Amino acid sequence: LRYVSLLGDATFCGQAFTVCTWGGTLNLNGHELTLALSEQSQPMQLLYGQIPTMGNVTVESGSIQFAEQRTVSGGSEWTLRIKKNAVLYTYNTYQYNNNGLQFPWKLQLDDGAIVRNARYDLVWSGPATVSGTASIVRQEDSWGQWFKGLTIGGILSGNGAFDVQKGQFLSVTNALNDFT
Fold it and tell me: Can you give the pTM of this predicted structure?
């Protein structure tokens, strides 16, 4: 699918599909998008596209992948929630200036949520909440490059913890953070 525009809340379920390929758009228009993909499916992929209007996104099962993403819109008024055993996966996300794409949304990681990335570190500039234990795992791509870590630039809160696997890192850069 190249152009997707939600006219109301929606649930995408079943097997994998790709949206926003090669300059396409995903317009959430302030609505809630829930992903309930089968465990055997590939991630819902957002490739080479734009998200000009944001909404809330909840990944109930399966994974969401931002790959070669150029631009995202919105701010911390919108939430990306990753539930137990669901995956936030990014690949080669960057802006045209190659400084890395920064995601401004609120990130909510439930107990058992997984964050993985290949090529370029993931920079989350919005606030983040972790409830339970979320994992940061290594993801090697087809060129042998892998995720080095997760940087959270916004306020980090919650009563949870991170399981940072060997060779990965978690960096919390906002001076107002007191998360321990």
Answer: 0.87
